[in-house]
């Protein structure tokens, strides 16, 4: 199935299927037959580059795929994988792993995440996002780097809102530590507006926000913040994104992403033991006023 598939998911499906079609054939032999370098074939099969539709058709025929319907399905995946989306215009400003994460985010059926230090990016107000990014980058709020990151974050939110209003909205599950609500990023006024926004978006049917109070003590999320994407049509594919001040990681290997799925499951299961969002926000508002 290729209808409605975004470029990131289409490219991953295509690379996996082309690798399966090669089967036991030596990669060097296939590369020579296609008049490619071996590195080009490796990059295609490892989901590093796209492949043109005419090349997909030729490769499928080389592998003995005779069913025209199957060949056209592979070609459509190639076409979808090469579709240019808005985030590709940011390639000069942002890390490649982050751009790939945004692409996967656009296809994900469930957006999960745990944040220990700040409000999840999808739920931030513009003012909160500016104050947070300015502090992390150690640059003034009007600095071009700050504005670029915030603009991309707000565009991601806009794209997500459009998907939530569509026929097949994604599910959003975000777990945050109580300290996130008590840290007045941007000052009391900015934080008060951010808390109000959390209550507003948390009331939407497809958005779940879980607050882990301090009294819970230790929990699986203490290993660090992360974002986890899952896909209803590709249950064997999970995507994890981890962001640090120095480097960003995008994980797609099943062995690497499996622990994060389990951690997320355990964190969401603490909802009954934690505070309701309204209660946690009320406590945070009282702390702001003290």
Automatic annotation (TrEMBL):
Q: Which InterPro entries match?
A: Cro/C1-type_HTH, DUF5753, Lambda_DNA-bd_dom_sf
Domain of life according to the entry: Bacteria
Query: Under which name does UniProt file this protein?
Result: Helix-turn-helix transcriptional regulator
Ranges where the HTH cro/C1-type domain occurs: 18-71
Q: Which Pfam families match?
A: DUF5753, HTH_31
